[in-house]
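Comment thread on ticket #2218

A.B. wrote:
> Attaching the input chain for the structure job we discussed in standup.
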Amino acid sequence: MNSYFATHGKKFRGRPLTTLPVVLNKDLSRLQENTLQLTTREDLEHLRCIAQNRQQWRELSTRIRKAAEAPPSDD
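C.D. wrote:
> Ran it. Output below, let me know if you need it in another format.
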């Protein structure tokens, strides 16, 4: 995962790849607080620290899941 955030010089041309860090960052951006992101190595280390605390990780997972749930339809 650390190699994902390493700079490689030339940018990739074409459609952006759908990778796990991209999906996780998108999920984190849906949170109402929007204080967490996954764009740098430091962000990755911060999320690893949260993951080591079971209660914090469970709360974060629950918040992400609730933010991703579709709103009830009016059917």
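A.B. wrote:
> Thanks. Noting for the ticket: Residues 28 and 34 are 7 Å apart (CA to CA).
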